[in-house]
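User: My collaborator sent over this chain with a note saying "see what the structure looks like." That's all I know about it. Can you take a look?
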Amino acid sequence: MKSLEEIEKPYSKAIIRLLKGAVDKNNKVWDDIINYQIEIQEYISVVGLELVLKKDDGFAFVKQIEDSNGGTLGIASRRQIGFESSIILIVLRQSLEEFDSNPAQFQVSEKFITDTEIKEEVSLFLPEKFNKVKFLKDIDKNIRQIAELGYLKEVQKTNNETKYQILRIIKEKVTLDILVEFKKKLEEYVESI
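Assistant: Without extra context I'll predict from the sequence alone. Here is the result:
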């Protein structure tokens, strides 16, 4: 029987970390991902995964490779998120898009947002007859869910407010096409009620 030392590769820990979720440039395995990206891709492709590396944005993750019918080998299950969390994602993605399209206005490279700002922005998206009281009561839970999914990173918490960094992986998961389509569907929904 072989020992771990005999079979471990220099990029083994990077693969394990990628299988757990997105990795940003501050993670200790980042350099291994950069240096061994070909080897990592060869290894994970056997189980139907693809390495997505965004050096300029400072993150990497793995995604399932789809066949021509949209099927996968099923190594990971897809998570359904609710309407409320979808609205939060759209607000965050829109906010990041506005931030990126006005680089001269901002002197930092990362976009930060407070839970209060998220709540204010989200309330603008809600239809008039929507149960806003229930939504606002549950919004903190939905914001935490978005953070757990890896789109927000808590950077500061006080008694009254939490400040988050919007992680750039959201641009990969919520593309501009998805953003436009969601807004269109939301407008249709609002008009129907």
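A starting point for your reply to your collaborator: The mean pLDDT is 84.
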